[in-house]
Structure prediction request, 510 residues.
Amino acid sequence: MTSDKKFNPDELKQFLQNKYGSGVQVEIFPKTQQEQTDETDETEQRRSQALDFDYKPSQIKEYLDRYVIQQDDAKKVLATAICDHYHHIQSCAGEQECRDYKKQNIIVIGPTGVGKTYLVQNIAGLIGVPFVKADSTKYSETGYVGGDVEDLIRELVHQARGDIKLAESGIVYLDEIDKIATPMSVLGRDVSGHGVQRGLLKLMEETEVPLRSPTDIASQMQAFMEFQSKGQVEKKTISTKHILFIVSGAFTGLSELIKKRLGSQQIGFMGSGKSTEEERFLLERVKAVDFIEYGFEAEFIGRLPVVVHCNSLSVEDMFKILRYSEGSLLKQYKKDFQAYGVDVYFTDRGMRAIGEEAETEQIGARGLITVCERVFREYKYQLPDHEVKEFIVGQTMIKNPNEKLQELLDNPTMYHTKILQFQLGKVEQEFSDQYGLDIKFTPEAAQLIIERAEESGTDLFTYCTRFFKAYEHGLNLLRKTASKKKFLVDEQGIRNPEETVERWIRETYS
Ligand SMILES: Nc1ncnc2c1ncn2[C@@H]1O[C@H](COP(=O)(O)OP(=O)(O)O)[C@@H](O)[C@H]1O
Ligand SMILES: [Mg+2]
Prediction:
């Protein structure tokens, strides 16, 4: 409240109770000075982030690679379109010359659960613009109510914490856009989808959306508060001119239409049934006419000039998602178990087995969640009541989770030795990644370092990492100069590592 007429909570209470009856209990906590300052600071920061957009497409792709497995083409096309869009917004800050610019709204095609939403979410997160995600079915099923699609734009303002300028450079993501297609049927075109397309068309183009929904109580309340403090209600609108629209869908049946248009003689996949390869081949050739045939208005499709394809995921991809994605859901599982003091380790074979099971679900990477939930449900329930402090998830556990659970409960330390080997394996792996050295522990050396780790109360991997950190210099030297890269760590290597590293260096020079 910047006006001199102070906001009065009691007046608002009175107003609401008059309007909605005394049954309505209202508590209003005005913001403290600190809260207000915090909020402004944060908004300022986010605004400058959005306006200081300074990425190259390859940088965005690199970031996406950390989270999203595969979908390389999609990453490139998305990254490029996003860069164009935000560079354009920046150049428009000086007004004028952007009048003829065609906005690069994007349509993403691909089966369910392969990363369409995840890609866009990550991009929005990286560049720090407000991001709103909605499901198109929400509009087609309830029947189209005039204001509904505009709520998406108002939600952007909410995401931007009231910063309209920032909201005006946000991203709106609409999933399941294929559900508002209106295919020709015997009864003619279905009208509800048609209405939604019209509504969206207006937003995608350029329009002013009122900040306050005429049908929403909360925004009317805000109007009242403003009236109280300023003596008038300012009429605010949000321009959709620079809001980027990304829509996505699985578009089942679209490839059939493309096939029909191309004529079967042009395609080399005759009679081979519906392979994913053929599907991809066809979808990559999609044209506006196919979307129109599918049930979209020409103007609607015309506003979506960038087409992005996402491919279905193989078992190997699923494995990589678990193993390498920074967003891997296994991190979540590890944490969940750690909350009960249980350490869980996943072997590569275990992760592949999860991938295999997940693939049969036919819902893309979402199948990974389904499988993990099914496999670990009982573990999560039972382990907190037992002695078990650690276990390894391998292939057999994924295939027979309940049998393995029983074994584990009967013998809580059954994995102990294996976990130590597993951790030593990880240490060896780390050596090869970090120093390019191929090391192996002799059984005696392994025994000794395990004992020491146990005495110090740290887990073996952490202990080893710290242990060898002290000899980093010598090891780096070996990485750079050694011709020989294979070394055996014996008992002496643990008792007197400095001398051992020196000996290795000497050996490589002789
Ligand atoms: N290619 C991928 N790489 C990494 N994780 C993925 C990938 N595809 C899907 N996921 C995971 O599956 C979840 C669901 O994917 P999502 O992007 O919502 O699917 P959709 O393609 O149906 O929009 C994501 O939140 C993410 O955790
Ligand atoms: Mg999605």
